[in-house]
Design a protein that fits this description.
10 helices; single chain; mainly alpha; 0% strand; 227 residues; 72% helix
Length: 227
């Protein structure tokens, strides 16, 4: 009798993990499909030009500071800057360390670099999917209910459309919802665990607001935690 119960529990856990994996895989496919949309046109979304053209200008000037052409999305800008710097570092040997030739190639093929902010947005939402799935596992016993929530939340037109763009909104949204998730965890736990979750929530709140000033309402996390 005991062995049968253990076997059924193990089979149930394996089934749950398989469905979780299938959902994550499907979300990855759906949100990645068409990530190249509009290219090689580069004026589909205004935000994307900030995080490609602005990075290009600063790389050519050997500067890491965002100029006036980056009005928002500072955290998003620096992530793009770091990744593009790595790509440039990997490409330059193929141009025999000729910076002029590399700049010419980048100017003619800049549309490839528009994939960088889009991939960042996509990976951000995949991270959020994993985070919320893990969070819901600890709160909802019914797997079917949890899967329904995940499906409704992530498999909708808004997420699947904006989640593959290089706009500032995807990362800002992911940072905000992640901060709320850890805030909720901090309220659910006690002692050091609560403090740790709130510190993570506070860091995410700071990053969210630093990235996009309009998200400063996320600082409401602090009075919620202390009241």
């Amino acid at each position: 009798m005991g062995n049968n119960f253990v076997t059924e529990a193990r089979a149930s856990m394996i089934f749950r993990k398989r469905i979780d994996t299938i959902l994550l895989f499907l979300f990855f496919i759906f949100i990645s499909a068409g990530i190249w949309h509009g290219l090689p046109l580069k004026n589909i979304f205004d935000d994307e030009m900030y995080f490609v053209g602005g990075v290009f200008r600063n790389l050519s000037q050997f500067s890491i500071l965002p100029g006036k052409e980056i009005p928002y999305g500072i955290i998003f800008y620096y992530i793009n800057f770091f990744i593009d710097s790595v790509i440039v570092g990997l490409l330059i040997p193929f141009f025999k360390f000729n910076l002029g030739a590399l700049k010419d190639w980048m100017a003619l093929n800049s549309h490839y670099f528009y994939l960088v902010p889009r991939i960042i947005s996509t990976l951000s939402f995949i991270f959020l999917f994993v985070l919320l799935n893990k969070f819901l596992q600890s709160k909802i016993k019914e797997n079917s209910t949890r899967w329904t929530i995940l499906f409704v939340t992530f498999f909708n037109l808004i997420v699947l459309t904006y989640g593959k763009t290089g706009k500032v909104w995807p990362l800002a949204t992911v940072l905000w919802i992640s901060s709320l998730t850890f805030l909720f965890l901090s309220l659910e736990t006690n002692g050091e665990e609560s403090k740790k979750n709130f510190i993570i929530s506070s860091i995410l709140t700071g990053l969210c607001t630093s990235n996009f000033a309009l998200m400063s309402f996320s600082f409401i996390n602090f009075p919620i935690y202390y009241l």
